[in-house]
Design goal:
Distance between the termini: 110 Å
Structural class: mainly alpha
Helix content: over 70%
Radius of gyration: 40 Å
Largest sheet: none
Number of strands: 0
Shape: rod-shaped
Number of domains: 1
Number of helices: 3
């Protein structure tokens, strides 16, 4: 193996040919990497719009849910303001507890 470098030194054409072959190999590797990156770029370009559409749909769904929650909150607040004096009495909770405990049939504890 020690003879080859001395042969290259003595033969400049062989040295240039070896250098050219090394550069060609490196260029092929670089081209292969570029081709792979182009493929990956194209896949990403096709995927991004789908992801953005999904995100927009999710955002719209969340916004619709917030609006719906606001309607429910307003309805609950109105009911509590108008009927809170009835809803939040001890008698109401005792009666509701009996209905839950014994099913839909009221049981007279008296």
């Amino acid at each position: 193996m020690a003879e080859q470098p001395s042969a290259e030194i003595g033969n400049p054409i062989l040295s240039i040919q070896n250098r050219l072959q090394k550069l060609r190999n490196e260029r092929e590797m670089a081209q292969f990497d570029i081709d792979n990156l182009d493929l990956e770029k194209n896949v990403i370009r096709q995927t991004i719009p789908k992801i953005l559409q999904t995100l927009n749909d999710k955002r719209d769904s969340i916004n619709a849910s917030y609006k719906e929650m606001k309607v429910y909150d307003t309805a609950i607040q109105n009911i509590e303001e108008q009927y809170g004096h009835i809803l939040f009495t001890k008698d109401f909770f005792d009666e509701a507890e009996q209905v839950v405990s014994f099913g839909p049939y009221k049981v007279n504890n008296g």
